[in-house]
Design goal:
single chain, alpha/beta, Glucose Oxidase, domain 1, Arc Repressor Mutant, subunit A, eight-stranded mixed sheet
Length: about 425
């Protein structure tokens, strides 16, 4: 198959949009297989129903073929699964019954404050069934009897996820995670896996012999990350130096991230400097967590990780509704998120802990890095270069230097490449400084 990056990101998202994903089942397998075709390095992992993962247990595998409510007097159908997979409460048990509308109403979920949109509702760990429709549609349901039909199954099976570890020169890892357990919602589902795989493609294409190792995982949210950590927590605690959970990275409204618990990791520093100068940047404390950062940063795991978003989950009106579509997610939105992560990778691969090789200032003029004519100026052409050198002590990271020198991260990356080419600095991750 062609390279993942040869196709616009939005086309990947549109190809996957209609699949009914959940914690388990055929929709999840189809989604994982799609990305595995582009990246055969992925390894599929399976956890069978009933397996204990820390304090959790893998649920039954859920699959669904069809569902609807049919008004018996008129033959009209409502809440048709084949028209929108959001019409069925996630993990609904099978049902084939006739019920009066007044009996049925407690099983119909709406979002009254957004009356034209279908809400996304799930019940993973308690076996129930239900339908979701727009509030305005519910108000107009005709009285009488309905054929209530959900053709689903809950059987012994597997929870599945895919991961890959691209080994670099160093065992130190940069970690990327996203989830593949939501049905047809473009931002709160597909944007994360789409961008994660673009990052994977970027590392493979641009840094085939990378300095750092890169770990990528696609999994069902919460139970998937818990399952993954049950196998790899010890390795990750030893090797992961920076991590990013990707969620809701497809809109154009904002850039945001949820900090780590202490807000002082390399991930916090990387995002704060990579987002410097961008419009509408919002930073949320760990108290406002809500995705898989809850597991990766939990006590006993404590990975140095942040969750990266465009507009944070729960903070845009279309979240968890049928309106989370391609009017929300755009190619520009996806590419904007990708550009942030590519910049962070460039920073790691350029020089994470720069160390000046000389006591005192090196002579830049003889290397063409400093003007040989000196005249007072408020905009000295080598000022940024000199500031970067001044903080290059082998202890400050590239992200620390960007903050200390009040520079954009892309400026620091560019300048460090010049200084490396002039043999003026080394990376203390490569040698003792």
């Amino acid at each position: 198959m062609s390279n993942y990056s040869e196709k616009p990101l939005i086309k990947h998202a549109k190809q996957l949009f209609a699949i009914c994903r959940s914690l388990t089942g055929e929709g999840t397998r189809r989604t994982l297989s799609y990305f595995e075709e582009y990246h055969p390095e992925y390894i599929r992992l399976k956890f069978s129903t009933g397996t204990k993962v820390f304090d959790w247990e893998i649920p039954k595998e859920w699959n669904i073929k069809d569902a609807y409510l049919e008004h018996l007097d008129t033959g009209r159908r409502f809440a048709e699964f084949k028209k929108s997979n959001l019409h069925v409460v996630g993990y609904s048990a099978p049902v084939d019954a006739v019920m009066n509308l007044d009996e049925l109403e407690s099983r119909i979920y709406t979002q009254p404050d957004q009356p034209d949109w279908i809400p996304y509702v799930t019940s993973y760990y308690q076996e129930i069934w239900g339908f979701c429709i727009a509030e305005n549609e519910k108000k107009n349901l005709p009285a009488g009897k309905y054929h209530v039909f959900i053709d689903s199954s809950l059987n012994e099976g597997n929870l599945e996820l895919s991961h890959v570890l691209l080994r670099g020169k160093l065992r130190k890892e940069i970690f990327f995670s996203s989830y593949i357990c939501h049905p047809s919602m473009a931002n709160n589902e597909l944007s994360g896996p789409i961008v994660l795989n673009a990052v994977l493609d970027y590392v493979k294409q641009v840094y085939p012999e990378s300095k750092y190792s890169y770990r990528f995982v696609l999994l069902p949210e919460t139970i998937g990350s818990i399952s993954y950590l049950s196998l790899f927590a010890n390795d990750m605690k030893q090797n992961v130096i920076c991590g990013f959970n990707l969620s809701c990275v497809g809109d154009e409204r904002a850039f945001s991230y949820v900090q780590s618990p202490e807000a002082n990791t390399l991930a916090d520093k990387a995002l704060s400097t990579a987002l410097k100068g961008r419009d509408n940047v919002k930073i949320y404390s760990y108290l406002e967590r809500g995705s898989d950062e809850r597991q990766y940063c939990s006590p006993g795991i404590d990975l140095p990780l942040c969750t990266f978003c465009r507009t944070k989950f729960g903070e845009y009106p279309e979240y968890h509704t049928s309106a989370d579509d391609f009017s929300v997610v755009t190619e520009n939105g996806l590419q904007g998120a990708l550009s942030v992560l590519k910049l962070i990778i460039d920073a790691f691969e350029t020089c994470l802990f720069p160390c000046c090789k000389f006591p005192c200032e090196p002579q830049l003029g003889k290397r063409g890095l400093y003007p040989n004519i000196s005249q007072k100026s408020s905009n000295h052409p080598a000022r940024a270069r000199m500031d970067i050198l001044a903080f290059s002590n082998g202890k400050n990271s590239i992200f620390d230097i960007a903050k200390l020198a009040n520079l954009k991260l892309e400026t620091v990356v560019h300048e460090l490449k010049l200084l490396l080419n002039a043999d003026l600095i080394v990376d203390s991750d490569d040698v003792n400084c």
